[in-house]
Amino acid sequence: MPTNIQFNASGLVPAVAQDAESGEVLMVAHMDREALRRTLESGQAWFYSRSRDELWHKGETSGNYLNIVEVRPDCDGDVILLRVNPTGPACHTGNETCFYQDFDRDEWSANDLDEANAGIGAVLTELADTVARRKTDMPDGSYTADLFRQGPERIAQKVIEEAGETALAAAAGAKVRTTSEAADLLYHLVVLLEETGVSFDDIASELVERRR
What we know:
This protein is of the alpha+beta class.
């Protein structure tokens, strides 16, 4: 394995997949050490899913593999370029590349900027709404839906795990890792609250009561 790869505090490095023939950028994902090792040994792209907290072999379910032609780290070793021959569309939407949408500068208004810089309350409220929809729809391939299928004990276990990871990162003074782990903790906590029927209003009322 290359020794000059600079994995971040979460043990990950961004990986850019590029069509070796056309030069088109197909997708961007993350790798940990094991994903990189499997990629180099198998000749097909492996990545690490932050949302599912697991390794994934690109194309394992769809058949749309990324066959490795060349692996190149950038000058600083903190980004990896995968030059590949794809066997099918790279994007889960069925498009050849994940970068198929046009960017309209005129549509990026002040309102969009406000939304992009929304406070934690707005972000958590939107997350809670999304989690609630996942519980209702239970779509295949959804990590959130899989958590609900596994039940409250498994969700609670994930909250405990993420709380421990957050505490360890904070104790080590690792700000970037603490931020990432805290985001994971809040996500799993929102899932647990939805599973148990506790709303943000319930929590807010409790906090107000304690303030008196």
